[in-house]
Structures are given as structure tokens and as C-alpha cells.
Amino acid sequence: MIQSIAVLNTDKASIYLKKFCRHFAHKLTVEFDDHNGSVEFPFGDCTVVAQGEELTLSLSASSVENIDRAEQVAGSHMERFAAKDELKVVWQRR
User: Fold this and answer.
1) Using CA of residue 52, residue 38, residue 63, residue 73, what is the dihedral sign?
2) pLDDT digits 0-9 by tens, 58-94
3) Which one of 25, 37, 51, 68 is least enclosed by Cβ atoms within 10 Å?
4) What is the dihedral of CA 18, 20, 25, 26, to 10 degrees?
5) pTM (2 decimals)?
6) What is the DSSP string of 35-62?
7) φ/ψ bin of 62: left (φ > 0), alpha (ψ from -120 to 50), beta (otherwise)
């Protein structure tokens, strides 16, 4: 399993977590509350944690191709939701 993580500093961590999860809930299996969320993409899983002013996105996938896709989809969507705050998602593979 390949893992990747991104940590964003924002005072709207919980708001962005909920926007992110709501967006995918109409197509995918999603669970979330104010502080924790999960999205099951066909190419990998994403967990989102809002803790204070920190938003952490964690991905896991079975192949390099799938983690590349997960990073692209999760990152581009989060950046779009946080465009006013100019947040940039930077992934770190583990």
C-alpha cells in the first residue's frame, strides 16, 4: 500500500473538510462529521482530519498509478474549494 499525506494550515479546516466530503457523497461512499471524514475513491481511500487550524488529507492506494490519481483528484478539488484562501496542497509520499 502506498500512502501520501498533505497538511494545510487554515482557520476553516472543518468547513473545508465538510465541503470536500459533501462534494463526493453523491457518487462515492463517504462518512464525515465536523472533525473527521473518509472518501472511498475507486483508485484509493482518503481520510480528512480537521484539528484546530490544521487540515490533514491522507491517501492510500495499491499502486503508483492509483496514488497519482488520488493525489490529483483530492488535491485539485481541495484547492478549488479553498481558492479564496489560496491554499496549495503539497503531497508527501510515505
Assistant:
1) negative
2) 999 999 999 999 999 999 999 999 999 999 999 999 8
3) 51
4) 120
5) 0.95
6) SEEEEEETTEEEEEEEETTEEEEEEEES
7) alpha
5, 58 Cβ separation under 8 angstroms: yes
State residue 75's pLDDT score: 98
The pLDDT of residue 60 is 98
Residue 66 belongs to what domain range? 2-93
32: domain CATH number is 3.30.310.50
Higher pLDDT pick, 50 / 84: 50
Q: What is the number of structural domains in the chain?
A: 1
Nearest to 31 by CA among 16, 46, 51, 10: 46
Q: Number of H helices and number of E strands within the chain? A: 2, 6
